[in-house]
Amino acid sequence: MTFCVRLLPILLRTSTQVMYPLFTGLATDGIPVAVTCRVLKFGKQGYYRWKTHPVT
């Protein structure tokens, strides 16, 4: 978790192609996607759309 917190400023400047997999990883660690989206100011709809049809 500390690793993610240190990288947060860098990650916030990156694209959704980097952020959405991070959301999935945080959800695996027990942090709900809704909370992650709210804190990082991303829309849940975009995440769930990406999850069903990921950009390759």
General description of the model:
The protein has 56 residues and is an all-alpha fold. The chain has one domain (2-52). It has 4 helices and no strands. The termini are far apart.
Average pLDDT rating: 80
Overall, the morphology is: globular
Q: What is the count of β-strands?
A: 0
Provide the number of structural domains.
Answer: 1
Helix content: over 70%
Which stretches are poorly predicted, pLDDT < 50 over at least 5 residues? Answer: none
- Helix count equals 4
Separation of the first and last Cα atoms: 26 Å
CA radius of gyration: 11 Å
Sketch the topology as an H/E string, one letter per element. Answer: HHHH
Strand content: under 5%
Biggest sheet, in brief? none
Secondary-structure-derived class: mainly alpha
| Oligomeric description of these chains | single chain
